[in-house]
Amino acid sequence: MGEGLATLLINRKEYYENCPGCKMDRKKEAQTGFPIKGLLTVWVVVLSAGSAYMLGRALTSIFWGAVADRYGRRPVIIFGTFVVVIFNTLFGLSVNFWMAVITRLLLGLLNGLIGPIKAYAAEIFRVEYQALGMSTISSAWGIGLIIGPSLGGFLAQVSLFLALLMHITVLLGCGYCFILDAGKSI
Questions:
Q1: What CATH number is given to the structural domain containing 51?
Q2: With 60 as the cut, is the pLDDT of residue 182 above it?
Q3: Fewer CB within 10 Å: C terminus or N terminus of the chain?
Q4: Is residue 103 domain-resident?
């Protein structure tokens, strides 16, 4: 009988009042069956964040094309790079649903990278290699979507200082590339 009581005491979970993790653990233990409500909630959050970004891009892509034609591609690309770093960081630090959606919408509205980069690729590749240039942009985008979140998740676990150091290093590297290419026109 003593062993059975010891096993019950070891397996007994202790919950504390006003502990957010404890509340979630209790909620998960109380669930029975297939968690369709949780799946739909996650689906709506991801769909809203993704569509907010694409809505912002759709609303301002013509504007960013005109800005790139008037002021040049380099300022638009540099501004877009800073916007991506700032708003993706803010998106990662979102504390609620609406902050996440608004951050993604602002990222889409202020991010004019794709148009100038595609125009630049069309200019630097001969006609027979333009398809390769455009597919390189899509491939780089896809690889970035795979590596970026993975690297960000790893760095977030390591330390905040290392993550900030990585962001600064990437920004300095981008700036260095533009300084080296100052003799050529983008």
A1: 1.20.1250.20
A2: no
A3: N
A4: yes
